[in-house]
Amino acid sequence: MALWNSLDHETIRGFTDGSSFGNPGPAGAGVQLQDPNGTVMQFSRHLGQATNNVAELHAVRVACDKLYVAISSGRMKALPVFLFIDNQYTIRAAAAPMDYPM
Q1: Beta pairing class for 40-50 and 81-85
Q2: Strands (E), 1-91
Q3: For residue range 7-53, what is the model confidence (pLDDT) as tens digits?
Q4: Going by C-beta distance under 8 Å and a sequence separation of 6 or more, which residues neighbour residue 71?
Q5: In terms of Cα–Cα distance, which of 43, 45, 44, 49 is closest to 21?
Q6: pTM for this structure?
Q7: The sheet that has 81-85: what strands, in order across it?
Q8: How do residues 42-95 score in pLDDT, each as one tens digit?
């Protein structure tokens, strides 16, 4: 929370998470986004059969898709985005996307 509170107020902040019951197994992805006004948006998606890493990657994709729609429709200002991700595979994939196929 110290990092969250240290971020510039004029940012969009969010958490992503994905999980599977078994690996692979039934999987889902969840996202929570918060704009500078404190408005919270939550999204989840059932993914069918997937691995945990694929579910984690999909959570980031859901966040990006929802942000794109909200910003392009004018419902949200285009601001810096900070996503908190708890999966090293997904973090490494963001740094080198061509090395981590989905």
Answers
A1: unpaired
A2: 12-20, 25-34, 40-50, 81-85
A3: 999 999 999 999 999 999 999 999 999 999 999 999 999 999 999 99
A4: 77, 78
A5: 49
A6: 0.89
A7: 40-50, 25-34, 12-20, 81-85
A8: 999 999 999 999 999 999 999 999 999 999 999 999 999 999 999 999 998 888
Interacting residues of 102 by C-beta distance below 8 A, sequence separation 6+: 54, 57
For residue 96, pLDDT over 90 is answered with: no
Hey, which residues does 40 pair with through a beta bridge?
Answer: 34
Q: How many CB atoms lie within 10 A of CB 23?
A: 13
CA distances (Å), origin 76, targets 1, 8, 30, 83:
24, 17, 20, 16
